[in-house]
Design brief:
The complex is a heterodimer of chains A (112) and B (117). Chain A is mostly beta strands. Chain A is globular and about 45 Å long. In chain A, strands 2, 4, 5, 9, 10 and 11 form a six-stranded mixed β-sheet that branches. In chain A, strand 7 and strand 8 form a beta hairpin. In chain A, 0% of the residues lie in helices and 54% in strands. Chain A contains no helices and eleven strands. Chain B has 117 residues and is mostly beta strands. In chain B, 0% of the residues lie in helices and 50% in strands. Chain B is built from no helices and eleven strands. In chain B, the strands form two sheets. In chain B, strands 2, 4, 5, 6, 9, 10 and 11 form a seven-stranded mixed β-sheet that branches. Chain B has a four-stranded antiparallel β-sheet with strand order 1-3-8-7, with no helix packed on it. Classes of the chains: A mainly beta (112), B mainly beta (117). Chains A and B meet through strand 4, strand 5 and strand 9 of A and strand 9 and strand 10 of B.
Chain lengths: 112, 117
């Protein structure tokens, strides 16, 4: 079993739809959590950090459930430009000794 | 935000030659840099963790003599693909973590696309 698991998709949704991605992690020592976005043939870019209290950035909402070791990303009012692969990223350790684990990514296609 | 620059963006080389890729943190110091490889339609695969002033830690299955990593300063790490072969053709990406006060956010270089003929 992988340490960070994501549904690979693809998710095919129409513009304006709400879509949710889930991610689970197996190591309870994991300390920080992120969602990254990767466009085709580009490097990943940070979308948002994920905090225990949940956090929102415009149309994007991220939530963390430490008890269930579960992270989610909700995208509201999907745009064509949201089409990308979304990577769940989990860190263990701290400055000087991070271990970063990437999920395999969830592909999203938003259609007109 | 922090910027990581990777060079070259594209490189085409003949089989048997060596290729060096540079990863620089432009406006911050990075104690730790990471090197990844990504094949088409696949996820990032961590190759090695590069710590300034010490030997890199390679992931299982990654040949350290094939992929030479040097992290001589807090702002520069290099990956050299030695005696490259067509199967080494891939997208190589580096990332860096802030040296101090970091929560683990990674800053990625733009990636280097290697094609070995």
């Amino acid at each position: 079993r992988k340490e960070v698991e994501q549904d690979p998709g693809p998710f095919n949704v129409p513009e304006g739809a709400t879509v949710a991605f889930n991610c689970t992690y197996s190591n309870s020592a994991s300390q920080s959590f992120f969602w990254y976005r990767q466009d085709c043939r580009k490097e990943p870019k940070l979308l948002m950090s994920v905090y225990s209290s949940g956090n929102e950035d415009g149309r994007f909402t991220a939530q963390l459930n430490r008890a269930s070791q579960y992270i989610s990303l909700l995208i509201r009012d999907s745009k064509l430009s949201d089409s990308a692969t979304y990577l769940c990223v989990v860190n263990r350790g701290n400055t000087g000794g991070f271990k970063t684990i990437f999920g395999a990514g969830t592909r999203l296609f938003v259609k007109a | 935000g922090a910027v990581v620059s990777q060079h070259p963006s594209w490189v085409i080389c003949k089989s048997g030659t060596s290729v060096k890729i540079e990863c620089r943190s432009l406006d911050f110091q990075a104690t730790t840099m990471f090197w990844y490889r990504q094949f088409p339609k696949q996820s990032l695969m961590l190759m090695a963790t590069s710590n300034e002033g010490s030997k890199a830690t390679y992931e299982q299955g990654v040949e350290k003599d094939k992929f030479l990593i040097n992290h001589a300063s807090l702002t520069l790490s290099t990956l050299t693909v030695t005696s490259a072969h067509p199967e080494d053709s891939s997208f190589y990406i580096c990332s860096a973590v802030l040296a101090t006060g970091s929560t683990g956010e990674l800053f990625f270089g733009e990636g280097s696309r290697l094609t070995v003929l």
